[in-house]
Each structure stands twice: as structure tokens, then as C-alpha cells.
Amino acid sequence: MNLAESLSSEAAAYWHRVQRFTPNARRVIISQAISRLGFGMYQAIFNLYLLSVGFSTGFIAGLLSLGLYTMAIGALIAGPYTTRIGEKTTMVLSGVVMAIAASALITIPIPEILIMMMILFYFGNSLSITSYSPLMARSSSPYERTHLFGTSQASRIGSSFFGSLLGGFLPGLFALWFLVPIDSPITFQLTLIIWIIASVIGIIPLLGMKESRPPAKTSEERDLAPDSIPSLEPKGRISIVFRFVICSVLIGLGAGLIVPLINVFFWEFYNLPTYMVGLIIGLGQATMATGVLLSPILSTRIGKVPSVVITQALSLPFIILLASVVNPLIAIISYLLRNALMNATMPIGQTLRMELVPSSWRPNLQALNTSAMSFGRATSVQFAGQLFDQGLYLIPFWLTLAFYGTQTVLYALFFWNAEDADS
């Protein structure tokens, strides 16, 4: 089989799995895509908005840290809560809570209000994250599940890409229209209004969801993708959960050092204009979306765990470049490639988490995983903010390298034979 035939075969197999997506899964994809358009703007310029109204990077980092600690605690509450009231209701409630909090965050820049609303926003986010993966797993069969997570993640990231681009360019347009400086708070506030609108519209597709079971599989599909919940004793399942939690803490510690403040890094360290910051964040989302779409094909060819380990290992040299080569072009390229490689296999990791435990465990595993990652991010982002205020912008990247490298090795040790156990 030549290359063209191979690619055609892969595309046909991919499309066959996409056609298997249930109505519930499609609604979640649409809802998340709309919501993430606004969230992309938040990622690109919210920190810059707070800087424009006079807050320090240390305060911003502390605010983000508080929100992430809230998510860590909120996820532990959301897990059992989601099991009790259902994933659909939890996701709708999450959308309402986050829209209310977003409205206050951009209109009332008072420290006390910012603190309360950031707590509310991240609690709402914990509800969404905790219910999302179990809902998608419930709405799919193992045959198309990795492709469903991949398509969903790609649509979310693609929407964030356009949101980040808009977030970078709209402040400049508003500055021209209203004849104010481009870094004036009003230009950021007007831009972030779209964040609120998208949050509200994103709730609508969820309202039509119905309780459903995964689609019935044909005999061919059962041969290709048998049910993958392993026949482990409870003790073995607890061990699996514990391993995921360890890896999530390490990922959270590494991510918190660089991800939440990456826009501040490019804005302050390299003195790049707002539109360039938005473009960089947006391109990071675009390259990640490409990797996410291709990751199911990679997992089919070499397996889920090798896919995760190899792509994450390949991202590490680009962190070294970010930390050691002080050049804006190299920094941008390294950021884009690191971002794509480290996050490309997110849907594969989500699939593994959902398949290695029984369905009744899924919300609580997702809650623990979210809590562990959020706790790590909350702990490290505050430290990163203090380093930024002291002008030490590169040290966080070296620390992230250590955390990510350790996690990659442990992930391989913990899960390399996991697929053999559930086959």
C-alpha cells in the first residue's frame, strides 16, 4: 500500500468513527467550541487587563493561584455531586456560574470582588471539567472514544485559537475607535465582553441533551475495540487512580510555572505588542489542535501509552530552548512546538483514564485528577509570579523541565503495560 492509499484508508477509518458520534456528544462538542471562543480571549488578555488597571504580576499570580486552589477543592466536591445529579445538569450549572463570574471579573476591578469572582469562576470550571470526560465516555463506545475526545479537544482548541487572535487584535481596534491608548482598561473590557456572550450562548446546546447509552457495537467493532474496563480487583483500581494522581500533580506543578503567565512573559520579557501576544497564544492553540486531531491515528498505530510518552518527551528540548536562548523568534517557535507536543495526546490520556476504571468510578477519578493538577498549578503559579516580579523570567522554565521530565518517566513506568491488561 502506497502513501496515498494509506492516508486515504486512515481518513476513511477516522470518518467512520466520527459518524458514530451520538447526538449528546455532538451537542457537547458544539457547546464547548462556543464557550472556548470566549475563553481564548480570557487566556490571551485577561492578565494584561489586570496589569492595565494597576495590579502587579504578583497579585495576578496570587489571584490565579487562589482560583486554582478553588478548582482543586471544588473538583473533590463536584465528583460525587456529578454522580448524584448527572453530567448534563452539572455542565449546565457550570456554564451559568462561569458566565456570572466572568461578568463581574471584567466590570468590577476591585481586589475583593476579583478574589470572590475568581473563586466562583474556578468552582464553575471544576464542575465543567469533572463532568465533561465522564459524559463523553458515557456517550461513546471504545470503538470511537479516542476519536471523539480528539475531535472534541481539537474543536475546543480551534475555538480558543480564534478567541486568542480576536483578543490580541480587538484592543487595538477599540483604541482607534475611542482614541484611547491601546493598553487602556476600556479596550480590554470591551474585548472581554465577547467572553461573557460566548459563555452564555455555550449553555444553549446542552439544554437539548437527553440521557443516553453508548451506541451499540457491531461484531467487527467489538473485535477492533473491545470494552476496555479491566477486570482488576478494587485494590488494583485504587493503584491505577493513585498513579494518575501522582502524574497529574507533577504536570500541574510544571504547567503552573509557565502556562498561566505566558502572555505576561512575552509582553514584559520580550516587550511584544498586544496583537503579537494574542497571535502567539492563538498559534499555540492552532498547533495543539492539529496534534490533537492526529493523536488518535498515532495511538492506533503505536498504542495509547507510547503515544503519550513519546510526544511529551519530544517537548522537553523546546523547554530548554525557551529557558536558555534569549531570542524572541526562537522563543515563539519553541513555545508553539512545546505546546503542541506536550498537549497533543490529551484525548488519549482522557481515554485511558476513563477506560481503566469502571464507569461508576469515572466522575470521581476525573475529580481527583482535576484536583491534583489544579493543586500543582496553584502552588507553582504563585511562585512564578514572585519570580517574574523580581525579573527572573527564565527560572520557571528550568523548573518546569524537571517536573515534566519526571512525569514522563513515571507515566511510562506506571502505564506501559496498561493496554495489555485491558485487552
Provide a descriptive summary of the structure in words.
The chain has 423 residues and is mostly helical. It has a single domain, classed as Growth Hormone, Chain: A. The two termini are 28 Å apart. The relative contact order is 0.16. About 4% of the residues have low confidence.
Radius of gyration: 21 Å
Q: What is the architecture at the second tier of CATH?
A: Up-down Bundle
| CATH top level class name | Mainly Alpha
Portion in beta strands: under 5%
Name the poorly predicted regions.
218-232
Brief descriptors of the model:
Growth Hormone, Chain: A, 18 helices, single chain, mainly alpha
Secondary structure layout plus pairing:
Elements: H1 3-18, H2 23-52, H3 57-85, H4 87-107, H5 111-138, H6 142-178, H7 185-201, H8 204-207, H9 219-224, H10 234-258, H11 262-269, H12 274-302, H13 304-324, H14 328-343, H15 346-355, H16 362-389, H17 395-415, H18 418-421
